[in-house]
Amino acid sequence: MMQKTDLRRHYKDLRRALSPADVEQASLRLTERFLAEIILPPMAIVAGYTPFASEINPLPLLALLRGQGLTTLLPVAAAPDQALVFHAFDEKTPLSKGRFGMNEPPSSASMLVPDIVLLPLVAFDPVSGQRLGHGMGHYDRTLEALRAKKKIKTIGLAYDFQACDGLPAESHDQPLDCVVTPSRVYSFTS
């Protein structure tokens, strides 16, 4: 089995090979799969993300969830070694580049604690629910902090090719509850 650094390089190379049309089509199919198979509680607070490079794009899904009356949030990175915080956003919210080059809502937007967290990933283990991120630990710290406050549901959003059997995991790695891809849903908890 490859080490995490090699796995990151391999799966990022696979993502980089996608055309913008490939990304758009996969994101739309994932949105359809999510809406068909994932049931979210009414009035849930859902945190998403803005896609980086060729990550699956959750923004169309978040717009549809807002249309169902759910509150949507985006992460804001306060500092490299701290948990992310989440601010409310909708289609009218002006986004600007944050600390790590990600589009973020303004600090004046309401800061809320999500019930559901939609996460980007580099790869995931289809058996254990382990997630391989970009290697900076932002989401591991964030999920640990959120889980200490309340019960949350974590849902990874991925391409089908990002499934990696036997993904190495460390004690600080936070597993996911499920992963949605364009063709299926992987559930890891009851």
Distance between the first and last residues' Cα: 29 Å
| Residue share in helix | 25-40%
Low-confidence stretches: none
Tell me the number of helical segments per DSSP (H or I, 4 or more residues long): 4
Large-scale geometry: globular
Percentage of β-strand residues: 15-25%
Alpha-beta classification: alpha/beta
Radius of gyration: 15 Å
**Biggest sheet: strand arrangement:** 3-2-1-6-9-10-11
Biggest sheet record: 7 strands, mixed
The ordered string of helix (H) and strand (E) elements is HHEHEEEEEEEHEEE
Overall pLDDT: 90
The total beta strand count reads 11
Give structural notes.
The protein is an alpha/beta fold and 190 residues long. Helix content is 27%, strand content 19%. The protein has a 7-stranded mixed sheet with strand order 3-2-1-6-9-10-11, sandwiched between helices. β2 and β3 form a beta hairpin. It is globular.
Write the layout of secondary structure elements.
Layout: H1 4-16, H2 20-37, E1 45-47, H3 59-67, E2 71-76, E3 85-88, E4 96-97, E5 103-104, E6 116-119, E7 123-124, E8 131-132, H4 138-149, E9 153-157, E10 178-180, E11 185-187
Parallel strand pairs: 1-2, 1-6, 6-9, 9-10
Antiparallel strand pairs: 2-3, 4-5, 7-8, 10-11
Jot down its keywords.
11 strands; alpha/beta; two-stranded antiparallel sheet; single chain; globular; 190 residues
